[in-house]
Amino acid sequence: MIKAILIFNNHGKPRLSKFYEHYSEDMQQQIIRETFQLVSKRDDNVCNFLEGGSLIGGSDYKIIYRHYATLYFVFCVDSSESELGILDLIQVFVETLDKCFENVCELDLIFHFDKVQYILQELCMGGMVLETNMNEIVLRIEEMNKLEKSEAGLGGSQSKAITAVKEMNISNITQKIKDIKLPELPNLGSIKLS
Amino acid sequence: MDAAIRKAKDSFGQIFDKNLHDLVRGIRNHKEHEAKYIAECIDEIKQELKQDNIAVKANAINKLCYLQMIGYDISWASFNIIEVMSSTKFTFKRIGYLAASQTFHEGTDVLMLTTNLIRKDLGSQSMYECGVAISGLACFLTPDLARDLVNEIMNLMTSNKPYIRKKAVLIMYKIFLKYPDALRPSFPRLKEKLDDPEPSVQAAAVNVICELARKNPKNYLSLAPIFFKLMSVSTNNWVLIKIIKLFGALTPLEPRLGKKLIEPLTNIINSTSAMSLLYECINTVLAVLVSISSGQPNHNSAIEVCLQKLRILIEDSDQNLKYLGLLAMSKILQTNPKSVQMHKDLIMQCLDDKDESIRLRSLDLLYGMVSKKNLMEIIKKLMMHMSKAEGTHYRDELLAKIIDICSQNNYQFVTNFEWYVSVLVELTRMEGTRHGKLLSSQMLDVAIRVETIRPFIVAQMSILIDNMHVFAITNSIPSKENKNYSDICEVLNAATWICGEFAANLQNPMKTLESMSKSKVTNLPGHIQSTFVQNIFKLYVHLIKKNSQDYDECKRLTDYLIDKMKIFEQNSDIEVQERACSFLQILKYVLKMLDSDPSGVENELWSLFEGELNPVAPKAQRKVPVPEGLDLDAWINDPPSDEEQNDLTSSQENHIFVKNEKFELKSYTSYGGNNSSDIKTSVSVGAKKIQPDISEEDLAKYKESRKIQIESNPFYIKQMKKSESNSLMSNNMSKATSYSESIRSQSIDLKIPISIPGVTSSDSYYRMSKIDDENKKLKKKMKSKAGKDSKKKKSKNDVEEDDEDEENIPVVKILANEMPDGVNNDSDDDKNKFKDPKDPHRALDIDLDEPLKDYERLPTSGYRPGILTDKPKKTNGLKEEPKKESNHKKEEKKKSKSKSKDAEKSEKKSRHKKSDKSVDLLVSNDTVNGHENEYNELLSPEHEIKTVITESKIKKQDQGDDLEFWLSGTKSEEKEEVKIEEKIEPKVEKKSKKSKKDETKDEKKKEKKSKSKGKNGHHDLKQAEIEDSKNIYKHVASNKHLNISCLMRPNHMNLNQLIIGLRLDNITTDDKLKNSEISSIELNLLNTSSLKLIREDKKSANDSIRIPFSLSNSSQNEIEYFFEVSDCTYGQILKGNFIYIIKSDLGTIQDKIDFKLKIPCSSFLIPTSCDNDEFSKWLSSGQLTSKYSIKCNISNYEDINSILGILTSNFHLTKIEIVDNTASIFASTMKHQPICILIKLLGNETLSMDGKSTSQSLIENILDELKTVISV
C-alpha cells in the first residue's frame, strides 16, 4: 500500500500532496516538512530509500523518492510494495506528466495542480497502484479533457479566451525556470511497462 | 434592479472571478503578505460559494483544493463540495470529487448525504463519471458507504469497460477493510477477475488479493495453485512481483509450497533482466529457505545462486541495488550465517560507504558475522568509525550496535572481558551520546554476570568516579530547546553502584568514598544522586568492617560522613532526601554505639548488606503472576478520607520501616538504582495492608510470613555455590592486577579526547590479542615442526590448544531462574504484535473456503422510501434484466451437464421461489429480486452445488485435497494444470451421488432440512411464520368423536406471548352418528404458574371459553389462543377440557374430553440470528453461569449435518459453526436468555452435548428435549 505521495521542490514548497490516510492539514504540512528535511540533505548519488520518518508510517514503511531537477517525488510505502517497482512507478508518473504537459516543468505543476491530481488518480487509487501503462493513462486523460471541452461549449470558449489573456503575463516568469529533465534510470533494467 | 445585477453577475461571474491560475499567481506575487492575501482570497471564495451558479462554486472549490494542499483547513466547505459533486457536468463533478478525496474522511458528517449521489454516479452511463466517483470513493470510504454501495461496485466488476472493471476491483479492498462482511460473498467474483483478459484488471485483482493475503495469509493458501499458474503464464512484471511477494507470505505456512517454488523462482532469477523482479525472487527464495530451514542439502545451490546475485547487486555502482542487496543479505544471515561470512570483505567495504542508509544496513549484517576470532577486529573498526562519524544519530547507532554485537547470546563471542570493559569505558568518552543508560546497564550486567572481571571493573569505575567532572553534567536534561543533550552521566550510576556493591575489590576505598561524597554530586540528576547516597553507605559499612578494631578511625569516618551527608539532607529530590536522612540517622546511632559499646557494631552494620545479588531478567517483574484471588484494585478496608489516609500511611510507613528495616534496605540494593522505586512501592503496599491498630504479635507474624515469602521468592536468591567460580577468580586475580598495571603504562600515549589517567584503552587489548595470535601461530608452527612426523599428534595438539583458549574465557553467569516461578519462558509478548485491536485487518481474518450460507449476502440496496429518486431505479432495472437472462442460460447449461443434478435443481428453484416470495412480501421493489439473482450468480457453479447440500465438511476436505494433491505432485507443471481442471468434474459427480443417496434415504428429512435453512437466515420473521404453519400439529388427546392436536409457536409481535393453536377434528366414524355435528364447544383451561391465557372477553380465568365454530362430520377447524409467558425455564403442563354437544340423527349427546397439553421448554425458543463473534462474546462474557452436558446414542445419523438438520427443523436454533465433527448452536428464549450449545459427534455413535446458559433448569430442560428428539 502507498500511504502518501508528495511532490515538493528544492525548497520544500509542496507542489502536490496526496495522503491515502487521514491526517489533519497541520499534520500534513508537518509530514511534508519532515520528509523534505530527510530527503533534501541526501546527496544525489546515494540510494533512494529511507527508513520511514517519525511522523508518517513506522518500521514497516519506507520513503522512496526521486529527485528531478527542482522537484522531489516522494512515495511513502509499506513492505507490500516492491522498492524498485515504486522507483519505476515514479518514473512512469513523471514521464506521463511530461507527455501530458509537453516538457513538464515545475511551473506546470504549480499552475495545474488539479490536472496533476487527475493524472495521479489514473496511476494510483486509494493507495494502490491502478495502472502502470503510460499510454493508457495518457489516453484516458486526453479523453477526459475532450469531455471537459465538449461540456464547456460556447461558454467555455469565452472563459478560455480569458485565461489565455491572463496567461500571457506568465511567460515573463517562466523564462528563468529550467525544464525538468528526465534522466535515464541508471542501470535499472526497468520493468517492462506493458 | 438587484436581481438584474445578480443575474448579470451570475452569467459573467467567471470573467471577474479569480480562477486557480489567478490565485496561484496572486500568492506568488504576495510573498511578503502571503497569509493576508490568502485570507482575502478565502473571503472571496466564501462569497462565491454563496452564489447559485454552479460554475462559480466549482471554481471556488478548485481554489480551495489548492489552499488545502498548502495547509489550510477547508472542512468548512464540505457541504459546498457535495454540491459541486452533484453537478451534472463532468468538469465540475471532477472538481468536487477531487476536493472530497483530499478532505473527506471517516469523521466527515456530511458524508452520509452522499450515498445516493455516489450511487447515481456509479450507475452513470459515462464511464469517466463512474471512474471519477470510484476514485473519489476510494479515498473517503466509510463503513456505511461501503455497506450501502458494495452491490453497485460488485455490478461494476462485471462492467464491459476494462477501465471501470479495474477500478471496481481495486476499490473492493477498501470496501473489505471498512465492511468485512462483504468479503465472503464477493470473493468468488474477485477470484474470477484473476483470469480477466485485460491485464490491468488482472493486476488489480492480484493486487487486492495480495493485500488481503499479506495480513491473513492462512486463508488464502488454497489459492496457491491459481497463483502458481499465473506466475508461469503472466508476463506483466508488476503482477509477477506481487505474486512472488504473496508467495513469500504464504511459504511460512506451507513448507511444501516453498519446495515447489524454488525451481521456477531460480529460473526467473537466472533469466530475468528486470532487477526489481530479480530482487523479489531472491527475497521469496530466501523466505522459502527460512521456512524449510532444516538443512536440505539440495537447496544449497539455491542459496549459492542468491548469494552470487546479491553480491553482484552489492557490488553494483547503483546505490539502490547496493542497499537492497544488503537488505536481502541480512535475511540469509538468519539461516545461513556461514555463507554470509564469506562476504565479510564486501560488507566491511560498505561500512565506509558515504551513504548512511547503506552503512546502517551493513552494520546490521555485521551483527551476525562476528565470531570469537574477529570480534575485536570488527569492534576496533567500528570504534574508529565512530570517532570519524559525523552526526550524533549515526554515532549513537554505532554505539548501540557495538553493544549489541558484543552482548549477543550472553557475550558468546567475548573472550576477554577486560577488553570489553575498556571498550565500554572508552565509549563513555563519546560526545553527546544518548545511550548513557544503555552503557550503564551494560556495565552493570558485565559486573554482575562475570565475577572474574569485578576487580578490574571496580578499578575502572573508581577512576570514572574520580573524574566525575568530565561528564557533561549540565547537559543531562532532555528538553526541546536542548537538542544536544546527552545522558552520559548515567554511567556514573553504574560506576557508583559497582564500586559500592563490590567494595571489597576496591584498592583504595577511602579515596573513592571521598570522591563520591564531593559536593559536585548534587549537580547530577536525582536518581543518580540517590544511588550515590546508597553506595556511600555501602562503602562506609565496608570501611567500618575493615577497620573494626580501630574505633577512633571508625568514629572519624562516621563524623566525616555525617558532615558530608548534610548536603544531601535538604536535596530537592525526595528520594535522595529520604535516603540521606535515614542514613544520617543510622550514622548518628552508630556514633552513639561507638561511644557506649563499640563491639559488634561492624557486624550489625554488615548485616544490612548481606547476601549476594543475582541478575534478574528485564521482563521478570511483569511476569510475576498475580496470585489467584488477589484483586489489586479492590480496597482492603473502606477507603479512608484523604486526611486520615495521609496520617495513617505516614505513621504506618515509619513503623514498618523501623521494624523491617533489614528487608527494606536489602531490597534497595537490588539491581541498579532504577528498580528501587518499584520495590519501594511494593513495600508501601504491604504497609497499607496492615490495620492501624495492629498488635505486636500480628506484626511478628507478618514478618515471619514475609521471611518465608522471601525465601521462596526467586528474587532473593540465596548464596550460590561459588566454589567453581571462586577458584577461577583467585586464579585470574593475580593476572588481572598485573594486566591493569601494564595497561597503565601503555595507555599514556593513547589519543583520547579528554584523557583520564588510568582509564584503559581497548586498543591495547586489541594489540595484545594480535600479539597473542602471533605467538600462538609461532607456537603452532614450532609444534607442527616438532610434530611433523605424526599428523595425529598435531591434531591432538590443536585440540588441546583450543581447550586452553576456552579455559581463559571467564564464566558468564546465566541463571535459569532469572524469571519468577510459574512463568513459561515463551516470548508471548512478541507473538501478539499483529493483534493490534485497531488493525482493520483483524476483521478480515475470514475463512474463504467455507461455503456461503444463506444469510451471507450483500445488503440489497433497499432504497429507503422518500430518498429514492426515479433515475437510478430505472437504470438499475435495465441493468438487471439481461443479467437474469444470462443467469438463466447458465442454469440451462448446467442442466445439460448432468441429469442427476436435476432433482436438486428443481428443489433449489423452489427454494428460490420461496425466498423471492418472502422478500416480495417485505419489500415490493423489483430491484430486490434482481439482486437476489445477482447474489446467486456470484457463486461459482461448484459452489452452488455445495451450498445446496451444505456439507461444508466434505467441501473443505475436497479443497484441502486439491491443495494437498497440488503440493504433493511431483510431475511436470502442465500435466498438473490439466488435472486441476479435470478435478472439478469428478467432484460434481461425487456430489450428485451423494445427493441421490440422501434423497432415497429420507426425503422427508431433506424437506425439513431445506426448511430449516430458511430459518437460519436473516429471513424475516414472517417467513418463519409461514414455515411454522406448515409444521405438523401434534396429537394431544382424542376420543371417539374428537381429535385434538396442537401447534405452539412464539408470538413474534409480542415476545412475551406464546401462541397455541388447537385443531379439532371431528372423527366420528360410528355409522349411527352419520351426519352428526359437534357444536357448542366450550373450552375450560387452567392457567399454570407461568402461563396465563389472554382473554379478550374479560371474563375470569375460570370461565369457559366458547369456541365459535361447529364441526360437521370428518371436518376440522382450528383456533389460536395467546398465552402470556412469565417464565421460560421450565416446561409446563396445561390442563383443560372441551365440553361439546353432538347433534345427530339419534339426538343430542353432551360429552367431554380432557386433555393435558405438554408445553416443553423448547417452545419458548424464538428464532434469532447470531454470528460467530457474538457467539464467542456470549461464551466469554461470563454471564452464562449454568452448564450442563449430556450424552446420547445415535445410530441413524451419518454425520453432524444430518443431526443439525433434525435439530434445527424441530427447534428454533441457530447454527453458528461446524468444524469437523463438532457444531456450535445458539438459541434464545422469549425472555432473551441466551443458550449456547456445543454438540460433538464421538466415535462410537454417541453424541455429546454441552450447553451453557444463564439458568440451570433451562439448559437442562432444553438439552433433555434435544436428546429425546435425536435419539428417537
TrEMBL record, chain A:
InterPro entries: AP_complex_ssu (IPR016635), AP_mu_sigma_su (IPR022775), APS3 (IPR027155), Clathrin_sm-chain_CS (IPR000804), Longin-like_dom_sf (IPR011012). It is found in: Cytoplasmic vesicle membrane; Golgi apparatus. The keyword Protein transport applies. Its main location: membrane. Signal peptide: none annotated. GO terms for cellular component: AP-3 adaptor complex; cytoplasmic vesicle membrane; Golgi apparatus. It holds the Pfam family Clat_adaptor_s. Keywords: Cytoplasmic vesicle, Golgi apparatus, Membrane, Protein transport, Transport. It is a peripheral membrane protein. CDD domains: AP3_sigma. One of its GO terms (biological process) is Golgi to vacuole transport. Residues 1-147 form the AP complex mu/sigma subunit domain. Part of the AP-3 complex, an adaptor-related complex which is not clathrin-associated. The complex is associated with the Golgi region as well as more peripheral structures. It facilitates the budding of vesicles from the Golgi membrane and may be directly involved in trafficking to lysosomes. In concert with the BLOC-1 complex, AP-3 is required to target cargos into vesicles assembled at cell bodies for delivery into neurites and nerve terminals. Belongs to the adaptor complexes small subunit family. This is AP complex mu/sigma subunit domain-containing protein. It comes from Brachionus calyciflorus. The lineage of its organism: Eukaryota, Metazoa, Spiralia, Gnathifera, Rotifera.
TrEMBL record, chain B:
Coiled coil: none annotated. GO terms for cellular component: AP-3 adaptor complex; axon cytoplasm; endosome membrane; presynaptic endosome; terminal bouton. Residues 830-857, 870-907, 929-943, 996-1005, 1017-1027 have a biased composition (Basic and acidic residues). It comes from the Eukaryota. One of its GO terms (biological process) is anterograde synaptic vesicle transport. This is AP-3 complex subunit delta. SMART domains: BLVR. Keywords: Membrane, Protein transport, Repeat, Transport. Residues 799-808 have a biased composition (Acidic residues). Residues 776-943, 987-1027 are annotated as: Disordered.
